[in-house]
Every structure is written in structure tokens, then in C-alpha cells.
Amino acid sequence: EAQVTQNPRYLITVTGKKLTVTCSQNMNHEYMSWYRQDPGLGLRQIYYSMNVEVTDKGDVPEGYKVSRKEKRNFPLILESPSPNQTSLYFCASSLGQPNEQFFGPGTRLTVL
Amino acid sequence: DAKTTQPNSMESNEEEPVHLPCNHSTISGTDYIHWYRQLPSQGPEYVIHGLTSNVNNRMASLAIAEDRKSSTLILHRATLRDAAVYYCILRDLMDSNYQLIWGAGTKLIIKP
Q1: B99 shares contact with chain A (CB less than 8 Å)
Q2: Which one in A57, A89, B50, B95 has a CA-CA gap of 20 to 30 Å to A45?
Q3: In a mutagenesis test of the B interface, which of A31, A45, A97, A107 is the best target, namely the one with the most B β-carbons within 10 Å?
Q4: Can you tell me the distance from the alpha carbon of B40 to that of B26, in angstroms, rounded to the nearest whole number?
């Protein structure tokens, strides 16, 4: 089954404790992206990747890092999480313009 | 980026057609019109997209005005499972970042 998977689905952590949210897709998509969703602000892009070893900032990249060492994986790294990074995170992948984007189920992160 | 305007919410009865409008008066010639939806507690899901001509797929139909300044997503026979937030999004084919710019969307309420 074609899908985007994210882990963990739920995470509660404390300020400053490094964490990684994994994202994997099995559709051989070149494009992958991370979004965060906050009430009243909608979904906003954090980082995106056009292909292996090619990443770029989206609209809200501060406090996040990403890497793309393999085509299927695009982990989101929070080196020193802060409470304002409490949010719902979605990973997405796509073949490219203008094709549809496939979204993962989301990761709900709470930073205390 | 060209913006879209959608009603905040709409109600419809189960098993009746639903017409969800979207205005995009500043659309450019290379903007595709995409529709996604987000069911409660799930990641966004692609519905349909089009450029100039009306489009049909198994989920819905997309009717695009002749001047492309508006479009309508048509659910031919709404079910309770179609209750979701529907997003109308413009994506520029020339944009190297396949980013989706999300608005507030239309919350569709289906009454049994």
C-alpha cells in the first residue's frame, strides 16, 4: 500500500531534549516536505527536499533541522525543543508538480 | 502567491450533492487549482486538481469558471464520511518548491 508513515504519532517531551520525528514513504517520490499545523494558523511549511541531499527552508524553519540521506526518509530534528514548537506535524511526499501530495497521519508533539 | 477565498463553513444533508465554492481572482496562467480535505484527526488528503477544464475523479468533480477566477468542488452524493475541512489551494507550476499554501478552508458539516 502506498503510504507515508511518521513516528512517533504522539510525543511529550521537555524543553531542550533533542528529538527526531521520522518520515518514510514507499512511493519512490523525489519531493518530501514537513508542515506544522496550529489552530488559527493553518498548515505552514517547515522544510522541503527536492531530492536526496537537496533540502531547503520553508516558511517557518527556525528551530528545526532536516536531512535527506535516502530517497525514502526525511527526518525532522528538533535540537533543542521549546514550548512554542508544540504542534501537530505532517510529512508529505510527491512525484512533483502538479501531482498530488500524500500526507502522513501526523505527529502530535507537546513540549513542556 | 495568489490567494483563495472560501466560506468558513457549509452544511448539507446526507446523500445530497454539495457545491463548495472557491474564489481566486488573482490566479495566474500557470496556477493549478488543487483541493484537499482533512478529516478529523487525520492528515490532509488529496481530492482533485485542474488547470482550465472541468475534471472528474472517483471522489469529486471540479468545475472551473471560464475566466478561472473561481471554481467549485462538487461532491455528488455526500456521506457522513465526507465531513471534513476542504481546502482550495493554488499551486504555481513554475514554483520550484511544490509547497501548498493553506488557507482556513471550508468546514463541511453533513447532517444525517
Answers
A1: yes
A2: B50
A3: A97
A4: 31
DSSP states along B15-82 = TS-EEEEEE-TT--TTEEEEEEEE-TTS--EEEEEESSS-EE-SS-EEEE-TTSSEEEEEESS--GGG
pLDDT digits (tens, 9 = 90+) for B52-65: 999 999 999 999 99
Residue from the list A4, A59, A97 with its beta carbon closest to the beta carbon of B93: A97
Sheet with B45-50: strands ordered across: B9-13, B106-111, B84-92, B31-38, B45-50
pLDDT, tens only, B66-87: 999 999 999 999 999 999 999 9
B42 contacts A101? CB cut-off 8 A: no
For the cut 90, the answer to whether the pLDDT of residue B103 exceeds it is no
